[in-house]
Amino acid sequence: MKKLEGYDFYREVLGSPRYVVAPMVDMSELAWRELSRNNGAQLCYTPMFHSSHFAQSATYRRDNFQTCPEDRPLIVQFCGNDPQTVLEAARYVEGHCDAVDLNLGCPQGIAKRGHYGAFLQDEWELISSIVSLLHKELSIPVTCKIRVFSEVEKTIEYAKMLEKAGCQLLTVHGRTREMKGAQTGIADWDQIKAVRQAIKIPMFANGNILYFEDVERCLVATGVDGVMTAETNLYNPALFTGKNPNVWEVVDDYLEIAQKHNTGFIHVKAHVYKLYNITFQIRHDLRNLLANVHTVQDVLDAQQVIKAALIETSKKECADVQVQRVETCANFKHFPYWVCQPYFRSTRLEALTGDKVKVETDLEATLRAERKSRKEAKRLRKAALYQKALLKPAKKRKFASCTGCKQNPKSDKCIHQMCKRCCITKTLEVVVDCEQHHVMAKSRADRINAEKIESETKNSVTISASGV
């Protein structure tokens, strides 16, 4: 069967998706993808896989790549800087997905150290060789995800190069490689629009998605075929439905799906913390319930307590929750803390509200609350450990007591069955040897007596000779 490309691939294989869940390291596993699909997502990516590990280790593949017949359409993302290695890794999944994506957008330090992601974006010849090899050798299309350059002209040329190399679908994140962490800032939709107008293959936009209204605004403003979201999806997986459900309802749904797919504890705990992020900033007592969980069952038990507390609170504080908009910005909404909602960095809030002073004040208050919460959790853990130590029965001695002092443990190989201090005293007293404690009193006495007898014999021989 001929491999479909471009818009034929986008329409007939992917089903013309508009709502896309991004590849997220350790976060977009099978259970999360199913939850997202149940809430309006039309296309999902796997987490980013390291091509070298994926190609060389069956254990890595088994532990990280999981899918099922219902997990479609699906795109598997790889990072790497060697064409043959990326191809070898892609061979393992080409029968289990609809396309393979090359990560050219990761801006993190680990990507810099590993020389992949956005830190390849200046090596166009290398990138072109990887994309063209995948395009020629795989039975499924190759797609790419990139970040923009500071200059829009360079971004356009970059996108055209990828299209020429064989990329069949391009995702453009409207931030530069330097825009991360506290410097994240606002994604540039104008750059995305310029790229859209310059290339002919299907294209997704990524960046600035907080609410469902932003998805529609982005589609109109940029002219792209679909919108991809990452961070906001982690806080509100129902984003594409236009709803902001109660957090405990989403957590219940996720935990049920996670159990069905035997999702690992690390993934489960990470997602539950993300979903309850806003809640835990207000309710430190509920956050502490997840501080010491070690199994999925522990998370399930904690969820029941958290859920009951939030249901009770929601009934008391707000019988009929109404969303209110901040007067300074039509794109920023206030929700109760028990409702799924996006997480705001200070730079994003500043750009949205235009109120830098208020944003910095609110951010500092949030940071203080988080620090206080961590200190309180640490104090509670120490108190629990101390209480546990008090309740523990005293440890039994491994050795019987010394027959001398009755306090220190005895040494079983000591001839007196004593500790070393008592053995020394006893051994000197009775003049015997204790090899265990290296106290050789008898041997020393015998040696002294032998030397004395030898000396006396020599003296007597000398006297006899002089008498003669």
Could you please describe the fold and organization of this structure?
By secondary structure, the chain is of the alpha/beta class. It has 3 domains: about 5-245, Aldolase class I (TIM Barrel), CATH 3.20.20; about 245-370, no CATH class; about 395-450, no CATH class. It contains 20 helices and 12 strands. The chain has helices at about 5-15, 30-40, 50-55, 60-65, 85-90, 110-115, 125-135, 150-165, 190-200, 210-220, 230-235, 245-260, 265-275, 275-280, 285, 295-315, 345-355, 355-390, 420-430, 440-465; strands at about 20, 45-50, 75-80, 100-105, 140-145, 170-175, 205, 225-230, 325, 335, 435, 440. The strands form 3 sheets. An 8-stranded parallel barrel has the order 1-2-3-4-5-6-7-8, surrounded by 6 helices. The model is unreliable at about 320-330 and about 345-355 (pLDDT under 50).
Secondary structure blueprint with pairings:
Elements: H1 6-13, E1 19-21, H2 30-38, E2 43-50, H3 51-56, H4 58-64, E3 74-79, H5 83-91, E4 99-104, H6 109-114, H7 124-137, E5 142-147, H8 152-165, E6 170-173, H9 189-198, E7 203-206, H10 212-222, E8 226-229, H11 231-235, H12 247-260, H13 265-275, H14 277-282, H15 284-287, H16 296-317, E9 324-325, E10 333-334, H17 346-353, H18 356-391, H19 420-430, E11 433-434, E12 439-440, H20 441-467
Which tags fit this structure?
468 residues, alpha/beta, TIM Barrel, 3 domains, eight-stranded parallel beta barrel, two-stranded antiparallel ribbon, 51% helix, 10% strand
